[in-house]
Amino acid sequence: MITNCSAGVSAFTANAYLVTGERTVLIDAGANYDVASAVREHVDGLDAVVLTHTHSDHVENVPALREAFGVETWGFDPGHERVDHGIADAESVTIGDHEYDALHTPGHRDDHLVFCSRTAGVGFVGDLVFAGGSFGRTDLEEGDAERLVESVERLRAALDDGEVETLYAGHGPAIDDPIDGVAASLRAARFAR
């Protein structure tokens, strides 16, 4: 089961997806609200926090989660203070009841990761792409429009078999038609660079 623990929060934050199952994981920690209480509405504990990237709106609540649940975090850059363990490009990660392939997708931020599971039919895309054909900003530190286009192209290629049916973005609603949605984001990102 996937629950957005940031749903209904009016503060500036990222979506924080609670994935329950064999390994209960929170995808991104969010910011500016009591995420630990939001998680406790659904489960008693967490096995891990997995980060799509380390912009503050995705990681500000990490210390509170560490304190509340004694949980460690995983992300691309273990040198970052909010990342305890590294996840390499193409590494497999257990989230809920399924294995997810990690794709390193820089452009919005150098440490950006996307997680896709064909068996679950789900992907978590952070701030790489959004519903409605939008894409992550490249005007922030480490942003790079060319690299973002390459990363969106890589995601698009990973979706070619059509087995991923829903992409959960770091902000806004899910993308329910991933192939067309990512293609629209790719067109927009190419045009904007």
UniProtKB/TrEMBL annotation:
InterPro entries: MBL_Glyoxalase_II, Metallo-B-lactamas, RibonucZ/Hydroxyglut_hydro. GO terms for molecular function: hydrolase activity; metal ion binding. Gene3D superfamilies: Ribonuclease Z/Hydroxyacylglutathione hydrolase-like (3.60.15.10). Residues 13-171 form the Metallo-beta-lactamase domain. The lineage of its organism: Archaea, Methanobacteriati, Methanobacteriota, Stenosarchaea group, Halobacteria. It comes from the Archaea. Its cofactor is Zn(2+). This is Flavoprotein. Keywords: Hydrolase, Metal-binding, Zinc.
